[in-house]
Amino acid sequence: MRRNGFFHLAMTMAGGLAVLLALGLFAAPRAAAERPPWALRDHYTLNYSGLALKYAVDNAEWGIEFNDEGRIVDRVYCAVVLEDGTVYDTEDLVSGRTRREELTTPLGSTRAYRIDLETPNDLIIHHSLKQIRGRGFQKVQMAITNTGSEPLAIAELRPVVMGAESLPGMPPATDVHTRRLSSRGGFALYDTQMDPQSILFYDRERDLSVGLGVLPEGVAVSGVQFERSGSTWQGNVVSRFEPARQLAPGETLRADPVWISFTTASPAGVDRMVSWMYSAMNTKRERPSAPDAWIAAPSNASADDLYRLVEDWNLSGVDHVLVPAGWPRRPGSLEGASPAYPRDMSNVAAAIRRMGKVPGITLDPLASTDGDSAWAVESPEGLYWLDLSQPGAQQHAANRAAELAEMGFEFFVITPSSIPNEVLEQLGLTRREADTLAFEAVEQGAPDAPVLPAPRTAIDGRLAYWLEAAASGSRMGEYGANVGPVRIHGDQTGGLNEPLLTALGFFAGPIEIAGQPNSEGASLFNALFPRGAGGARPMDAMQRSPRIWETPMNRLGDSAHGSALIAFPGAPPWPVQHISLDDGAPVLVWRAEDGAFMQASGVLPGSDSLTVYGATANQLRPVLIGALQAGSRPVANRVNGLEWDEGSGTLSGVLTGSPGQNATAYVYVPDAWGLVSSSIGGRGEAEQSANLVRFDVAAGSSTRFELEFERRL
Asked: Does residue 283 register a pLDDT over 60?
């Protein structure tokens, strides 16, 4: 329920004029509709081109105005939810104290507007709005301090609360899109079970968007919770604490930060901005490279079952193998569960290595078979649950991870712990805090090994689901953020076709391949692994399962400038004029099947099959614009030593083809130039047709090319 009984003495200011709004300490709370307009309230105004964010000093309420059309966002406040369900919100508070600060943060130069709100229920609510200079977003942060003499059990902090009146300027036809992600151990996980991490409202007619989302910090489980209310939307951005966080007198608790975007109109631009921000906020040390994929057995599988599974997947090209969660003799033990596993687990690691694979192991770092009462809680069964907030427990867990690494295990997958809520309450930790500390302990003990979360979502063989999963983290992977794994079951692999394999290749995180392969599955996967460098981006970021993608090529200076455009089955027509590369320059679009260029006023036609195009900026001289697998999937070819010699008109370099995929390289030649001679790998020659020069790139090897041109106009 919502608590409307905040005692308040309402006083607001406008240009030094004090207006008495409440006559007594026990006056009924002011209805939301009676709040004076912004012009009569003391507030900050953050002006942008045609837009303004207004932030009230009296109660940290905020809203956004658009040109002369009025408010598109209004009356956004925050709330605290106690364990018993009581809700305290700030909508009726009018006693804020404010200060302004200049900060340097991982996101850049920042101006912070801070407001403290005292409440009569022994809480101070700290609210801040941070304006990141030169970036198209702001951060909202919320914390509370217990000023009473008794602990308070906090279930949720809601840094953003939007009621039914909070989006008055977004029409009913507004597109609404969420990114279904969660977070564990610094990884963004595609997750269909948890609240999404972001929501974007986009008015295509006005080219106007408003976005909200969380930046997880590893203490709470955070997400967005919105639902349609009549012709508009309402909801919260929430940080949940499980079990409820006991807030001791004098202690402060903080919600995960919330980003707000409204100055960047393009959904693709918002996706790019948030992905960069997510990466910039992850200040952990650089991790060892995660595997592209691993083979996994059911949790109750034996060592022999696992070995047979590895043989079944031998043709897949997958080099990593995961020992499942059922391997320990007892929970927390480092000995195998005989007879299913040998007591000495180094024998399992050695056996997997003899099969030519890299062994990894599933682990719950919070469980142990021994411990100290100073930093562990012993269960009646003799199992010790570690308090990883204590240095002794952290070192104990790190030592256990180091012991497994010494046995020969080269990567770790952290399973969600079965630690009881009662133990977490005794330790004073939330489940998410304990989980975050578990990752840190394993990373400390095995610094050279990738440490990854277990996948949250299994995806079947439907193209739409793989495109959604790929879109959820594609930009994050491009900016170097850690994208977690998803799972595909072996019996779903027989129907893998070119569109599905392409979508799997666009997914930026590892893929766990679980169970027995379909009769064709192993050999089909061989065309996918090892995967290339990635970098695929959806062109319409508002679609849950985008059907048109761009894969930029590895560029060096101004001698290579091109992308592949991939239209998946079901792709809608897409205007060529809406296609732009990162620098925003107009592009030329050409068909991979015949090299024909398309008119700038034309459209990419809708597609019933996987169709590949190329795009390049309109250059004044010959440039390398891409390398594609002939008539099919794009490939992540790498270019090195690319040079243009203006004096001799020579373009040269080395292209390295992706394993198993022969490709055709393309060079755009303006009308003013023509090909004179060529040398491809010291053996072949290139061919010119209209404005394109083509030459072959062998799979898995380096091809040196040298093309000489002359000016003809």
From this structure: no
Cβ neighbors of 457 (< 8 A, separation 6 or more) are: 189, 190, 191, 192, 193, 469, 486, 487
How is 251-317 classified by DSSP, letter by letter? -EEEPPPEEEE-S---HHHHHHHHHHHHHHH--SPPPPPPPSEEEE--TT--HHHHHHHHHHTGGG-
Q: Read off the pLDDT band of 546 (50, 70, 90).
A: very high
CA distances from 247 to 119, 151, 262, 394 (A): 16, 5, 34, 23
Cβ neighbours of residue 236 closer than 8 Å, sequence gap 6 or more: 79, 158, 160, 161, 162, 224, 225, 226
Give the type of residue at 432.
Answer: R
Q: What is the pLDDT of residues 607-657, one digit of tens each?
A: 898 888 878 776 788 888 777 764 445 445 577 888 899 899 999 999 887
Neighbours of 69 (CB within 10 A): 11
Distance CA(27)–CA(94), nearest Å, equals 13
248-253 CB contacts, 8 Å cutoff, 24+ apart: 248/146, 248/151, 249/146, 249/147, 249/148, 249/149, 249/150, 249/151, 250/145, 250/146, 250/147, 251/145, 251/146, 252/126, 252/143, 252/144, 252/145, 252/146, 253/143, 253/144, 253/154, 253/157
φ, ψ (nearest 5 deg) of residue 38: -55, -35
- Cα 250 versus chain centre, distance: 35
| pLDDT greater than 90 at residue 514 | yes
CA distance 65 to 191: 34
Q: Please give the pLDDT value at position 20.
A: 23
- pLDDT higher than threshold 50 for residue 10: no
- Please give the pLDDT value at position 582: 55
SS3 437: helix
Residue type present at position 7: F
Q: Is 300 exposed, middle or buried (0-12, 13-18, 19+ CB in 10 A)?
A: exposed
- Residue 5's pLDDT is 31
Pairing relationship of beta strands 181-184 and 187-190 according to DSSP bridges: antiparallel
Residue written as tokens 């980003």? 259
Tokens at residue 697, please? 């790139």
The gap from C-alpha 52 to its chain's centroid, in whole angstroms, comes to: 28
Using a pLDDT cut of 90, give the percent of the chain over it.
51
Query: Which pair of structure tokens corresponds to residue 155?
Result: 């279930």
Which residues fall within 8 angstroms of residue 179, CB to CB, at 6 or more apart? 196, 197, 198, 213, 472
Residue 32 pLDDT exceeds 50: no
* 543 Cβ contact partners less than 8 Å away, ≥ 6 residues apart: 177, 471
Q: State the Cα–Cα distance between residues 150 and 449, nearest whole angstrom.
A: 44
- Tell me how far apart the alpha carbons of residues 194 and 196 are, in angstroms, rounded to a whole number: 6
Query: For residue 179, is pLDDT > 60?
Result: yes
∠ Cα 126 132 135 (to 5°): 145
pLDDT at residue 11 in the model = 26
Closest CA to 520 of 659, 317, 316: 316
Which pTM does this prediction carry?
0.87
Give me 454's structure tokens: 């277990």
